[in-house]
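Morning!

This is the sequence you dropped in the shared folder:
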Amino acid sequence: MSNVQIQYPAAIVEPGTTFFQQAKLWLIDAAGLEKDALHIYFALILLFGSVWLFRWPLRSWKPFALILAFALIGEAWDIRDGLLTRVPLAVSVPLSLHDLWNTMFWPLAILLLARFTRVFDGQPAAVGPLDE
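The structure's back. Tokens below.
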């Protein structure tokens, strides 16, 4: 085995200097939240915002598809910015997959609950002995 290190081409832009990455860092700082939490909040805002704005039912695939489209576009942009700042795909792709999982988990859980249970039916629950 040799001790040759991989040589990456020079960065086109300095790390963290793309507008999209600067905006994300500003939002993380302004909100005082971790990046993972912002992914979750953004997904839930899109979910409930689209349901309210477009009058889509929670059981519809449309809000989920909207969130997935935003998440895929955002992660593609992150990978592009990573390539511009010399981040190898072996690093950026797993991070993007983590972000996609983080973003899509609760919208998927809510979609499945809305489709396959009565949790979001709006019917009052039967009063049991513990509810009185």
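Headline: Residues 33 and 109 are 23 Å apart (CA to CA).

More detail when I'm at my desk.
O.
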